[in-house]
Specification:
Strand content: 35-45%
Order of helices and strands: EEEEEEEEEEEEEEEHEHHEEH
CATH class of the largest domain: Mainly Alpha
Helix content: 10-25%
Number of helices: 4
CATH architecture of the largest domain: Orthogonal Bundle
Largest sheet: 5 strands, antiparallel
Number of strands: 18
Structural class: alpha+beta
CATH topology of the largest domain: Arc Repressor Mutant, subunit A
Radius of gyration: 25 Å
């Protein structure tokens, strides 16, 4: 089934001096302009191409990859605003994405970088964007478990921390006290359910909480030590950035974890890093 607003695998049915025509199923054919044709492509072959409607409502193909396809979120820059809405650059040179005024949570301005959801307007058939995410969220109560691993999309920053979309379906909050590493709007990452409040609001963590957090990190440290020949140049004096880069955890959690492993006799903490204790050493 052909999906406009998404990348499709399409057969080349005709070659002309100005490009290729691709079989677009129920839509007939779509022109892939010559400048986007991969070298050596011939009739009968199939290629991956993104389909969209141009300003004349003609179906067009491109081998460019959009920032976000229909049904996806993407961080985009507003290129201009006119009487019908704002237009964002979404990775297609010949076509900016319209965000109608009715789909703007707040008035957008030229040069602004913002997270946008791409969808097909049922009334007009046009591919447009929206910043009104509440209508996209699942309105049924969230059914997550504490410490459950979830996919997160950072949607906006607030005085409390970062608001994130959980599993593409629910709102969650990463409070400032739980933030470590670099977060920014549009970033996708793994997180964990920290709490679900009585009012249904979801608190998030970037690492497991409680004993599970420590146990999980202990396993990761020991595994990496094994892979690296028994030594890592990371100790309790290392920078938070270096620790986060290696284990995606805070320096405080890392220090507590290697301290615990030291007390268990599984590693030693040296001036330059940590070293795995061999089994025969620990048995002496």
């Amino acid at each position: 089934m052909i999906k406009v607003g998404q990348i499709n695998h399409l057969e080349v049915v005709k070659q002309t001096e100005f490009g290729l025509f691709l079989n677009a199923g129920e839509y007939g054919s779509a022109l892939l302009p010559k400048r986007f044709v991969p070298e050596g492509t011939e009739v009968g072959q199939s290629i991956d191409a993104f389909l969209y409607f141009d300003s004349d409502n003609q179906l067009v193909a491109t081998t460019e990859t959009p920032i976000a396809q229909v049904g996806e979120w993407g961080l985009m820059t507003i290129q201009g605003v006119n009487s019908i809405g704002a237009f964002a650059s979404w990775g297609i040179k010949e076509k900016d994405l319209l965000i109608p005024f009715s789909e703007q949570r707040g008035r957008l301005r030229e040069g602004q970088e913002i997270l946008i959801y791409v969808y097909t307007d049922k009334a007009s058939g046009r591919i447009v964007g929206t910043t009104k995410f509440n209508k996209l969220m699942d309105q049924t109560p969230a059914n997550y478990e504490i410490n459950q691993s979830v996919d997160l999309l950072i949607a906006e920053r607030s005085d409390l921390g970062y608001k994130a979309i959980v599993e593409g379906a629910h709102w969650g909050m990463i409070f400032t006290s739980d933030v470590f590493g670099k977060l920014f709007v549009g970033k996708r990452l793994k997180g964990y359910i920290k709490a679900i409040r009585e009012d249904g609001k979801i608190d998030l963590s970037l690492q497991k909480i409680g004993v599970a957090k420590m146990d999980d990190l202990s396993s990761k440290i020991l595994e990496l030590l094994e892979k690296k020949g028994g030594f890592l140049p990371l100790n309790d004096k290392s920078s938070p950035e270096a620790i986060f880069s290696a284990f995606r955890t805070s320096k405080g959690t890392y220090k507590k974890t290697i301290g615990g492993l030291y007390k268990q006799g599984k590693l030693v903490i040296e001036k330059e890093g940590i070293r795995l204790v061999e089994n025969n050493e620990s048995n002496d």
